[in-house]
Amino acid sequence: MKTQLLTLPDIDRVIEMAWEDRTTFEAIEFQFGLCEKEVIKLMRTHMKRSSFYMWRKRVQARRTKHFHLMGRDTFRFKCSMQKTISLNKITKR
């Protein structure tokens, strides 16, 4: 299974991305190679039962967690308000 190849910081990042509303399962698969079922299994094994049920209730059929349910104009992996970083300085808008 692919989750066995992940380091602890990677697992923490996958869990963080799974909790974010705007991060799609496709973005997690693109970055870590885990499909939606593998993310669910990872969340089930690394979270408390009550936290997992809370997350599943929140994510169930959420339009922003599935790219094919989102509008075509909403293709991004980062927030549009996020500042860009160049030469170790945060650039101004």
Number of helices: 4
Kindly estimate the percentage of residues that lie in beta strands according to DSSP: under 5%
Query: What is the CA-atom radius of gyration, in angstroms?
Result: 15 Å
The stretches of 5 or more residues where confidence is low (pLDDT under 50) are none
Structural class: mainly alpha
Query: What's the helical proportion of residues?
Result: 40-55%
Mean residue pLDDT = 76
Any idea how many domains? 1
Estimate the global geometry from the Cα principal axes: globular
The count of β-strands is 2
Largest sheet: 2 strands, antiparallel
Biggest sheet strand line-up: 1-2
Straight-line N-to-C gap: 43 Å
- Element order, helices and strands? HHHHEE
What structural keywords apply?
single chain, 93 residues, mainly alpha, two-stranded antiparallel ribbon, 4 helices, 4% strand, globular
Give a structural overview:
With 93 residues, the protein is mainly α. It has one domain (2-71). 45% of the residues lie in helices and 4% in strands. It is built from four helices and two strands. The chain has helices at 8-19, 25-32, 36-46, 49-59; strands at residues 85-86, 89-90. A two-stranded antiparallel ribbon has the order 1-2. Strand 1 and strand 2 (89-90) form a beta hairpin. The N and C termini lie far apart (43 Å). The mean pLDDT is 76.
